[in-house]
Design goal:
Shape: globular
Structural class: mainly alpha
Largest sheet: none
Radius of gyration: 14 Å
Number of strands: 0
Strand content: under 5%
Length: 100
């Protein structure tokens, strides 16, 4: 059972993974270590990039309403790297991400 402080701690760790693209020093335990490597396809639109991230993180379960919110947030950020990292963080905040 998770309480609010545990959920906030877990989300902070997920956000750290998206921001720093690695699992080191995020207190996931000794068995969790590594780096993430992903870059959006060249010339892809905000919608296409969010679709790909949603497929990777939620197996395509992200609802159209939440997808639209993430696309809007992505489009409002000028630096592409910051934009897709923010998109990852937002998708990691959804119920679809936490559903197995």
């Amino acid at each position: 059972l998770l309480d609010l402080p545990m959920m906030v701690n877990l989300l902070n760790r997920f956000y750290g993974v998206a921001k720093y693209m690695n699992f080191h020093n995020l207190n996931f335990g000794n068995s969790w270590a590594g780096n993430l490597f992903w870059t959006p396809p060249a010339g892809a639109s905000a919608s296409e990039i969010v679709d790909e991230i949603a497929t990777i993180l939620t197996s395509g379960r992200l609802s159209p309403e939440k997808r639209a919110i993430v696309v809007e947030a992505y489009s409002s950020i000028s630096r592409p790297t910051d934009a897709w990292k923010r998109a990852m963080q937002l998708i990691m905040s959804t119920a679809e991400f936490h559903t197995t």
